[in-house]
Amino acid sequence: SGRSRVGATYTGTSRRQQASGNHPYTRVNRRDLPTHRMVATVPHMALRVGVQLHPQATNYEELSAAWRAADAMGADSIWLWDHFFPLYGDPDAAHFEGWSLLTAMAADTERAKLGMLVTCNSYRNPELLADIARTTDHVSDGRMYLGIGSGWFERDYVEYGYEFGTAIGRLRKLGDDLPKLKARLAALNPAPLGELPILIGGSGEKVTLRLTAQYADAWNSFGPPDTFKHKNGVLDNWCAEIGRDPAEIERTVAISPDDVGNLDAYLEAGATHVIVMTGAPYDLAPVEQLLARRDA
Q1: pTM for the full model?
Q2: Left (φ > 0), alpha (ψ -120 to 50) or beta: where does 194 sit?
Q3: Roughly what angle, to the nearest 10 degrees, separates helices 167-187 and 126-139?
Q4: DSSP 3-state assignment of 127?
Q5: How far, in Å, CA of 279 to CA of 286, rounded?
Q6: Are residues 143 and 119 in contact, defined by beta-carbon separation less than 8 angstroms?
Q7: DSSP H helical segments within the chain, as ranges?
Q8: DSSP one-letter code for 258
């Protein structure tokens, strides 16, 4: 539609990344699968609809127009990512830092919740990240998520001087830092204005989903629906194992624009918050399609 179009549909490489195992949220070692009994997935909740705007191969004017359009059409959430270089297309295309953009977005929007899908834990120590997120939450009048994951994009690490290490090492660091992050959030003065829910992104069944059950208020992963359903069940298992109500954790899924036709399958798989991933020039028509379903 004319009012939703601020660009063309993103077709990206996320599915190729998933197929090749190069996407950080899709690496699974079958030895890591819990062997205990699956418990029932949390009941359906009201659908929420979001959009992730990729801050690559664009300019600030185009990107900010997209987030204002998404907010005006009633999106429940708007997200960026935490990288320093493009993840697909021209590797040397224009790119912008995420938390700086989130602060601008917070001041420039009114309704939608905002967040990073997701922050790389390696790039800022947990105390600093807590303060950044709390401050941005005040700018947004209490509309922020604090999305976080262990990190995976090696080029970011190498060119910006962070130690890349190993996947398990980054996961262990995330496990060490999550309690520090929560402690700093509790100590900050002033406190966050909103709830500032912690969202963990990832699907590793032995570590990431256990950390999600322990520390998160929300979880993000990818499709297809059968994969999401399985991961959702594993997260429920970890909740049962540690004695946490699985309904306390919001279930979000990031999908490509051409996957919106599978909405019902994602809802049946346990998703309650569907986030469309899109790059410049930012076609929001698929988001509008989901919003029409939400409001029907």
Answers
A1: 0.85
A2: beta
A3: 50
A4: helix
A5: 13
A6: no
A7: 14-20, 60-72, 98-108, 126-139, 154-160, 167-187, 208-215, 225-242, 263-268, 285-295
A8: G
Q: Which two tokens stand for residue 68?
A: 């204002």
- Give the Cα separation of 280 and 122 in Å (integer): 27
Tell me which residue of 93, 80, 88 sits closest to 120, measured CA to CA. 80
Task: Note the pLDDT tens digit of each residue in 7-57.
Answer: 333 333 333 333 333 343 333 332 233 333 333 333 446 899 999 999 999
Average pLDDT over residues 231-247: 98
Output the average pLDDT for the chain: 88
What was the pLDDT predicted at 19? 33
- Beta pairing partners, 52: 79, 277
To the nearest 10°, the Cα dihedral for 61, 143, 191, 235? -120
pLDDT digits (tens, 9 = 90+) for 182-199: 999 999 999 999 999 999
Contacts of 244 (CB under 8 A, 6+ apart): 213, 214
Composition of the chain by helix, strand, coil, percent to 5: 45, 15, 40
Backbone angles phi, psi at 265, to 5 degrees: -65, -40
